[in-house]
Amino acid sequence: MKRILMKGNEALAEAAIRAGCRAYFGYPITPQNEVPEYMARHMPRAGGVFVQAESEIAAINMVHGASGAGVRAMASTSGPGFSLMTEGLSYMIGSRLPGVVVNVMRGGPGLGNIAPSQGDYFQVTRGLGHGDTHGIVLAPSTVQEIVDLMPVAFELSERYRLPVVIAADGILGQMMEPVTLPEPIAPPPPPDWATTGAVGSPRVISSIYLAPEDLERHVLSLMRTYQEIREREQRWEAYRADDAEVLVVAYGTAARVVRSAVDRVRAQGLAAGLIRPITLWPFPTTAFERSPRRWLVVELSAGQMVEDVRLALSGRAPVGFHGRVGGVVPSPAEVAEAIRSAVVGEVVRA
Amino acid sequence: MIKDMVEVTSRPRSLVDVPLHYCPGCTHGTIHRLVAEAIDSLGIRERTIGVASVGCSVFIYNYLDVDFQQAPHGRAPAVATGIKRVLPDRVVFTYQGDGDLASIGTAEILHAAARGERITVIFVNNAIYGMTGGQMAPTTLSGMKTTTSPYGRDVRQAGGALRVVELLAGIDGVAYAAREAVTSPARIHRARRAVEAAFRAQIEDRGLGIVELLSTCPVNWKLPPVEAVAWCEANMIPAFPLGVLKDTTRSGD
User: Fold this and answer.
1) What CATH number corresponds to the domain at position A85?
2) Chain B residue numbers touching A202 (CB-CB < 8 A)
């Protein structure tokens, strides 16, 4: 297979087109600008639609419209824009619409900065707008994995009729890595529920259920879908985990640093391993059934995923945390030291 | 049966035969019928997709026999853009109230117009928020009392009534912009022509078509239906002049 060097954001866009995406809507925001730029050049050649929206609010609602019309549709953004999209995401969830949104995370809160971050973890896993909302969240850690997860994102989104979020970060978006691109697939035909014109009886895509009993039934149905997703769609990667005395949990860019740190401490005789969640929601709780003596969570955020790790472990083992924020990425040496400290800390407290 | 009878009127094919939920004297029913008549006369029912917006008329999808998507508050033109771009041979329209289009959705309508989206916008202006119980709207008249302008709309504090079609008519992407009222049979007849013209602007690939229809809200205006119609005639029409503001078929471009 031919391998080519591509920037994460561009690989993401190309992979989406190859996955049958035929509608992209976006608004400029760093560090994901290469996505709309690539889409503007290439989507029309693929017979698809590119619209630069007036805001992320409009962009997600254009995804609503296109997806509701039966076309694979997506948007991409970064934190501040993702906040604006959460209104539309809630409506899409309420209306059971598929669609893919990429969040190339940057430093927050507020305008923050444009450096890599994982600070939107709570927002993507807990906060897809108002109401009882969830969507599958995929977290790639290499450019190749971005490419590989793109068709998965569309398929999962359509299978469960919920939006799927791809949570990347500024490093993954900006870095170049060799990738193997899949063969393009033809876009699937519009599903039966799509509003393409009422040749038979009319179809309605709506999130309104005025009667409390009706809305409860609707939300309970959503919750059954959430439960099915929790049972069937957990994804993670384990690295040198089988005999590990200390397991480090990290995703995305942070997991790459941890991987190097694990190799370092292993070389010095400390049996460390890595659990790398690929689905942030559903959180891969199955990966936490085996408990080593000590856990450490490493994030490019101020302690968000660590809450899910503690929930998954339910107090079975102590969980340490090491996070850098503001766009600072720790070195493997720094993380190796954090792993050693975590183990020592346990000894001290024992 | 009496022989040789000619049918002069009937329920439009695109209007579903169910009771409307609207308050007595509300003009949404009349406007729904005008939209259904336009869809029938243009023969586009099976390729029309409506976008319902937040407000009393969100349940329009129960009354028109076409496919519908329900948009978040103010976002109908963005949802319509998404539909129309991926299905360019279909006919897409939004049905929006004044709070939806002229307040929370100003960015969406303005930029759909700027892009010249081939969509039709039915804009119902009754100068008040109906569904939420009579709050001040962007189109509330100067001095008009509402639940959030209890002493009358103070222009110094809250600004004056926003005339949206005048604003949109100045945008290149708009092919047809008109304002009519539905307060008398003669006006309804003019409104019917305007609604159809706003659909034609889309079908003929000329640009966005918008019709603003001055409407009543007897309950929140606290007026009986007949007086509400008279109040609209006496107060709204002077503040919101009627007529076709732009029609690209007339200017020759």
Assistant:
1) 3.40.50.970
2) 61, 64-68
Considering Cα of B127, then B133, then B136, then B142, what sign does the dihedral take?
positive
pLDDT class of A129 with cuts at 50, 70, 90: very high
Chain-chain contact of B86 with A23 (C-beta, under 8 angstroms): yes
Chain A, residues 34-73, CB within 8 A of chain B, namely: 49, 51, 53-55, 57-59, 61-71, 73
Distance CA A103, CA A124 (A): 9
The Cα of B88 is separated from the nearest Cα of chain A by a number of Å equal to 11
| DSSP H or E run through B86 | helix B76-86
Query: Cα(A27)–Cα(A232) distance, rounded to whole angstroms?
Result: 34
In tens, the pLDDT along B191-200 reads 999 999 999 9
Test A61 with B82 for CB contact under 8 angstroms: yes
pLDDT tens-digit map of B6-29: 888 899 999 999 999 999 999 999
Q: What is the C-alpha to C-alpha distance for residues B214 and B228, in angstroms, rounded to an integer? A: 12
B28-247 carries CATH number 3.40.50.970: yes
User: Which residues are within 8 A (CB) of A240 and not within 5 positions of it... i.e. 6 or more apart?
Assistant: A262, A263, A266, A272, A273, A274
What are the domain boundaries of chain B? 28-247
Look-up of token digits 């299978």: A159
Answer yes or no: do B107 and A55 touch at CB < 8 A: yes
**Rounded to whole angstroms, how far apart are CA atoms B221 and A122?**
45
Q: What would the two tokens of residue B217 be?
A: 């809200």
Side chain identity, residue B22: Y
- A137 alpha carbon, distance to own chain's centre: 4
ipTM for the whole complex:
0.96
* 3-class DSSP string for A271-338: CEEEEEECEEECCCHHHHCCCCCEEEEEECCCCCHHHHHHHHHCCCCCEEEEECCCCCCCCHHHHHHH
Q: Tell me which chain B residues have a C-beta less than 8 angstroms from the C-beta of A49.
A: 85-86
Looking at the fold, whether A241 and A219 belong to one and the same domain comes out as: no
Tell me how close the Cα of A37 comes to any Cα of chain B, in angstroms: 18
Residue A286 has pLDDT above 50, yes or no: yes
One domain for residues A167 and A247:
no
Residues of B in contact with A199 (CB under 8 A): 46
Extract the tokens encoding B196.
């159809």
Between CA A10 and CA A176 the distance in angstroms is 9
CB contact under 8 A, A73 and B81: no
Distance from A193 to chain B by nearest Cα, in Å? 10
